[in-house]
Write a structure and sequence with these properties.
about 60% helix, 12 helices, Potassium Channel Kv1.1, Chain A, elongated, mainly alpha, about 10% strand
Length: about 200
Amino acid sequence: METVNTIKVGPKEKIFLIHSSFLSAASTFFKAAITGKFKEATTNEIKLPEESAETFEHFVRWLYGGCKEDLTPTEDPSICGAKIKRIIDLYIFADKIDCQELKQEMVRELYHLVVESRPFAYNHDSVEYLYSRPIAAEPLREITVAFWVWYCDVEVFKTEVSVQNLLAKAPEFAQEALIEMGRRFGQEGATNPLESGVDYLLAKI
């Protein structure tokens, strides 16, 4: 009978029961915990006290190949914002556990959501949330900057108070957007990175 691991997630230790083979195949972190010389390998129990139970539940759904979120284009900023937050959280979790396949999937999801839902996709809160995360999710940042510089009216950076506030709260975004603007308007023949397709971004992971 196949081994099942007990994963306790978050400060309240929400319990998930997951097949070891699925965890090992997806993540080098889990493979090391399950097969290495750690106590987790003998107890079949892994604790992730700092992770979000909600994010981990999305990971489990992805792991078993189902319950993928509907990415139908929408004009509702709040719906787009919720989807983007989930993508960001899953990408960062995947980075922590070294799950390359999930990272790639999240880049694909954000790319298609942004391209197909423009100009409604990226609200200010989503940008601020991305740039406040402890891990610099570079491909997600590149999609974000390209969206704002190439799909939005650049005049909003000068005239919109809400955008000015965003730039103040997310200085790294402001810096990266300024660099991309310089490329767009100062480099002859410059093209929107998003027009290069998602494979261009996946190659950077």
